[in-house]
Design brief:
Elements: H1 2-19, H2 31-38, E1 42-45, E2 55-58, E3 63-67, E4 74-82, E5 85-90, E6 93-102, E7 106-114, E8 117-125
Antiparallel strand pairs: 1-2, 1-8, 2-3, 3-4, 4-5, 5-6, 6-7, 7-8
Length: 137
Protein backbone atom coordinates (compact mmCIF):
# COMPACT_ATOMS: atom_id res chain seq x y z
CA UNK A 1 0.00 0.00 0.00
CA UNK A 2 2.84 2.40 0.90
CA UNK A 3 4.62 1.54 -2.34
CA UNK A 4 1.48 2.29 -4.35
CA UNK A 5 1.12 5.67 -2.64
CA UNK A 6 4.79 6.44 -3.25
CA UNK A 7 4.49 5.54 -6.94
CA UNK A 8 1.39 7.68 -7.27
CA UNK A 9 3.11 10.66 -5.63
CA UNK A 10 6.20 10.26 -7.82
CA UNK A 11 4.07 10.05 -10.96
CA UNK A 12 2.11 13.16 -9.95
CA UNK A 13 5.28 15.13 -9.29
CA UNK A 14 6.83 14.03 -12.59
CA UNK A 15 3.67 14.97 -14.50
CA UNK A 16 3.55 18.40 -12.86
CA UNK A 17 7.20 19.02 -13.67
CA UNK A 18 6.65 18.13 -17.34
CA UNK A 19 3.65 20.46 -17.56
CA UNK A 20 5.33 23.32 -15.72
CA UNK A 21 2.71 23.14 -12.96
CA UNK A 22 3.83 23.73 -9.37
CA UNK A 23 4.38 20.42 -7.57
CA UNK A 24 1.81 19.32 -4.99
CA UNK A 25 2.67 19.62 -1.30
CA UNK A 26 3.78 16.25 -0.02
CA UNK A 27 4.10 14.80 3.48
CA UNK A 28 7.43 15.65 5.08
CA UNK A 29 7.99 18.71 2.87
CA UNK A 30 9.70 21.77 4.27
CA UNK A 31 13.46 21.98 4.40
CA UNK A 32 14.02 21.26 8.12
CA UNK A 33 11.76 18.22 8.14
CA UNK A 34 13.18 16.94 4.87
CA UNK A 35 16.83 17.33 5.83
CA UNK A 36 16.33 15.56 9.15
CA UNK A 37 14.75 12.57 7.41
CA UNK A 38 17.09 12.37 4.38
CA UNK A 39 20.55 13.09 5.75
CA UNK A 40 22.87 10.61 7.47
CA UNK A 41 20.75 7.56 6.57
CA UNK A 42 21.57 4.64 4.31
CA UNK A 43 18.99 4.47 1.50
CA UNK A 44 18.76 1.23 -0.51
CA UNK A 45 17.12 1.31 -3.93
CA UNK A 46 13.85 -0.53 -4.50
CA UNK A 47 13.98 -0.10 -8.27
CA UNK A 48 14.11 -3.47 -10.08
CA UNK A 49 16.26 -1.99 -12.87
CA UNK A 50 18.87 -0.55 -10.48
CA UNK A 51 22.15 -2.39 -9.87
CA UNK A 52 21.78 -4.98 -7.11
CA UNK A 53 22.18 -3.40 -3.66
CA UNK A 54 22.38 0.18 -4.98
CA UNK A 55 22.52 2.64 -2.12
CA UNK A 56 22.84 6.35 -1.45
CA UNK A 57 23.97 8.12 1.72
CA UNK A 58 23.53 11.92 1.85
CA UNK A 59 25.98 12.85 4.62
CA UNK A 60 25.34 16.16 6.38
CA UNK A 61 28.94 17.23 5.61
CA UNK A 62 28.02 17.52 1.90
CA UNK A 63 29.38 14.12 0.82
CA UNK A 64 27.16 11.75 -1.16
CA UNK A 65 28.18 8.09 -0.97
CA UNK A 66 26.98 6.04 -3.97
CA UNK A 67 27.61 2.33 -4.49
CA UNK A 68 26.06 -1.06 -5.10
CA UNK A 69 27.02 -4.71 -4.70
CA UNK A 70 28.48 -4.69 -8.23
CA UNK A 71 29.98 -1.19 -8.53
CA UNK A 72 32.95 0.62 -7.05
CA UNK A 73 31.87 3.25 -4.56
CA UNK A 74 31.76 6.92 -5.51
CA UNK A 75 31.98 10.01 -3.29
CA UNK A 76 30.47 13.17 -4.72
CA UNK A 77 29.68 16.64 -3.39
CA UNK A 78 25.98 17.39 -2.85
CA UNK A 79 23.91 20.22 -1.32
CA UNK A 80 20.37 21.43 -0.69
CA UNK A 81 19.36 24.24 -3.02
CA UNK A 82 15.77 25.11 -2.14
CA UNK A 83 13.29 23.46 0.18
CA UNK A 84 13.28 19.81 -0.79
CA UNK A 85 15.52 20.11 -3.87
CA UNK A 86 19.08 18.83 -3.85
CA UNK A 87 21.91 18.70 -6.37
CA UNK A 88 25.03 16.57 -6.75
CA UNK A 89 27.86 16.09 -9.20
CA UNK A 90 28.13 12.85 -11.15
CA UNK A 91 30.25 12.08 -14.21
CA UNK A 92 31.08 15.76 -14.77
CA UNK A 93 27.51 17.02 -14.68
CA UNK A 94 25.21 18.47 -12.06
CA UNK A 95 22.08 16.43 -11.30
CA UNK A 96 19.07 18.05 -9.65
CA UNK A 97 16.52 16.01 -7.70
CA UNK A 98 13.30 16.78 -5.93
CA UNK A 99 12.49 14.85 -2.76
CA UNK A 100 9.00 13.76 -3.77
CA UNK A 101 8.24 11.65 -0.71
CA UNK A 102 10.18 11.18 2.49
CA UNK A 103 9.21 9.35 5.62
CA UNK A 104 11.16 7.57 8.31
CA UNK A 105 11.57 4.43 6.20
CA UNK A 106 11.04 5.57 2.60
CA UNK A 107 12.45 8.08 0.16
CA UNK A 108 11.30 8.98 -3.33
CA UNK A 109 13.38 11.15 -5.63
CA UNK A 110 12.52 12.61 -9.03
CA UNK A 111 15.82 13.31 -10.77
CA UNK A 112 16.09 15.75 -13.67
CA UNK A 113 18.47 14.09 -16.13
CA UNK A 114 18.35 17.08 -18.50
CA UNK A 115 16.60 17.51 -21.85
CA UNK A 116 13.23 17.12 -20.13
CA UNK A 117 13.99 13.56 -19.00
CA UNK A 118 12.94 12.69 -15.44
CA UNK A 119 13.86 9.56 -13.48
CA UNK A 120 11.91 8.41 -10.42
CA UNK A 121 13.82 6.43 -7.81
CA UNK A 122 12.44 4.73 -4.70
CA UNK A 123 14.51 3.81 -1.65
CA UNK A 124 13.96 2.28 1.76
CA UNK A 125 16.02 3.00 4.88
CA UNK A 126 18.54 0.27 5.64
CA UNK A 127 18.67 -1.33 9.04
CA UNK A 128 21.84 -3.14 10.13
CA UNK A 129 22.88 -5.79 9.53
CA UNK A 130 22.74 -5.70 5.72
CA UNK A 131 24.94 -7.79 3.41
CA UNK A 132 24.99 -7.50 -0.36
CA UNK A 133 23.06 -10.32 -2.02
CA UNK A 134 25.14 -13.27 -3.19
CA UNK A 135 26.52 -12.59 -6.65
CA UNK A 136 27.38 -15.10 -9.36
CA UNK A 137 31.12 -15.79 -9.40
Amino acid sequence: MLRAALLLALAALAACARLGVPAPALPGSGSKGVTKLVENRVWISEDPDAPRGMLRIFLSDGTLVMTSCTETYRLAPWRWVEGSTLVWEEDGRILRAEVAVVERDSLGLVIDLGNGELLSQRFHAAEAPVVCPDLPR
